[in-house]
Amino acid sequence: MISRMSSHRSANAEFLARSLAAVWHPCSQMKHYETFPLVPIARGSGVWLYDFEEKRYLDAVSSWWVNLFGHCNPRINAALRDQLEKLEHVLLAGFTHEPAVQLSERLAALAPPGLGHCFYASDGASATEIALKMSAHHWRNSGKPDKSRFISLENSYHGETLGALSVTDVALFRSAYGALIRQQATVPSPDWRKAAAGESAEAYALRCADMLERHFQQHHSKLAAFIIEPLVQGATGMAMYHPVYLRRARQLCDEYGVHLIADEIAVGMGRTGTLFACEQASAPLTPASGIGEKITGITPDFLCLSKGITGGYLPLSVVMTRDEVYQGFYSDEAARGFLHSHSYSGNPLACRAALATLDIFQQDDVLAANRAKAAYMNRISRPLREHPAVRNWRNIGMIWGFEVDSPHRDFSQRCFALALKNELLLRPIGNTIYFMPPYVISNEEMDLLVSRTLHIINQLS
Fold first, then answer.
1. At CA 53, angle to CA 425 and CA 453, rounded to 5?
2. Measured between alpha carbons, how far is 322 from 313 in angstroms, rounded to an integer?
3. pLDDT tens, residue by residue, 183-217
4. What pTM does this model have?
5. Helices then strands, each counted (H, E), the chain
């Protein structure tokens, strides 16, 4: 364990004392910070975060997967300064503004075909809530009020508000808050690590799709939607699966009259190698060469985006949907309208940050650059992949994950602490180490990330 603070009152120690006295931190047992201290951050630049004494940490997890183009990116900074001189906020009920209109138009042009309507909120869990409510309300408006149930994958994560928790399959949350939520059903995850010996990832994904169909056969009359994290189930260990499952899920949702909600909150905005993970739901896969090029994929009924959409700058989420869904609410009756709002829906500053993020994708041909970075990372990671304690090495786009065999029951805490000593910010999920760095990471920084992670594994295995 790290001692809480040194005997003298350093700049870091002074700030930590203030934080612990005033801030209740998320996903934390606050008492643990008495022996396992918070990490004070004073500033950021590129992939690096710096404390008050200029110690640095490579942000290998993009600060909870949100930062795409580095901390304090000069182009996003400039866009926000410009917007500050024009409009900081206006309610989006009865009013509209240029950044929200521009962003909606650009997203509609880039997203899978047919997703022409954008509904804005502030965070990923809110986007999940919106998609669930919109789906069930649409069926009600369509004369099918019994279609109000949802299904998700085993080990899914879709947020921590009550509606989102109802489709999140994390035992800790279900134990703590199960009495408050309407429990929904799950179907087997196509996570390829669960495949039988000798069974390919594709064959296992199709077998799981058969089990999804059996659930539809029995329950489709009550089902509003199937919500899924395309290609990667993030918060429960970076579980990856074959894209044929998405293709088959789309077909089954069409056949049985169930909405498909694609939760791309974590995997959208280029994380999986294409701008949207749903683009890869085709066989054979055809990589895109840039942000403006379309490839074969699927169109969900609802597409949820957040996290990287503003480059990690400001809270923003959006649910994109089809015209058929939109028209189901279009009426003279107020009760048939979608009854949902957020004070900061479509905030102009957040929308402008998102527009600047899309500009960088286009101007820098980011998807092509990321393919080169991923190829380099995979080349230099061979010592990690071949380490005797490493299992299930996996990669898609700019996401890497693997498990570590370790005798330490508190592996994640030990790994986190050792990473900080080695200038890395890692947040293991159990025994799973993952990398989701900002896209601006350099070859030299990837070298450092791999070599120091290897050093940490040698100490813990």
1. 25
2. 28
3. 899 999 999 999 999 999 999 999 999 999 999 99
4. 0.94
5. 15, 16
